[in-house]
Amino acid sequence: MAAPIDLELKKAFSELQVKMIDTQQKVKLADLQIDQLTRVQKHAKLTHAEVAVLADNTRLYEGVGRMFILQSKEDINNQLMDKQKTAEEKIKELEQKKVYLERSVKEAEDNIREMLLSRRAH
Fold first, then answer.
1. What are the two backbone dihedrals, phi and then psi, of residue 59, each rounded to the nearest 5 degrees?
2. How many CA atoms lie within 13 A of 55 on its CB side?
3. Could you give the domains of the chain?
4. pLDDT (tens digit, 9 = 90+) per residue, 53-81?
5. Closest-CA residue to 91 (of 48, 30, 44)
6. Model confidence pTM above 0.85
7. Distance between CA atoms of 117 and 75, rounded to whole angstroms?
8. pLDDT tens digits for 73-112?
9. InterPro entries from the xrefs (predicted)?
10. Which residues of 4-33 are buried (b: 16+ CB within 10 A; e: fewer)?
């Protein structure tokens, strides 16, 4: 009877190991994406600060591929604000995803602990 218990525990541990490795990779990817979005957000914020001090009649150009398009100061400010807001929303989503992934691994670990304790009690 000890052999089926050992096989069941081995299976549970191997599933947990696979889940932990997968989760760690997803958390690392989320961290990288958060770092990149933070840089984008900071760049947009700094650019917005520089554009804000310019006179309203200053000619501003937006880089599009290999060319530059004349844009109004208001349009550029709106684009920069949208870029900041979008990055902030994505960062919040990624943080929530990380919390969910970490919680799911913790629950799997707790389930295995309970299984071990119930096996020892019998």
1. -80, 120
2. 3
3. 2-121 (1.10.287.370)
4. 999 889 999 999 999 999 999 999 999 99
5. 30
6. no
7. 63
8. 999 999 999 999 999 999 999 999 999 988 988 888 888 7
9. PFD_beta-like, Prefoldin
10. eeeeeeeeeeeeeeeeeeebeeebeebeee
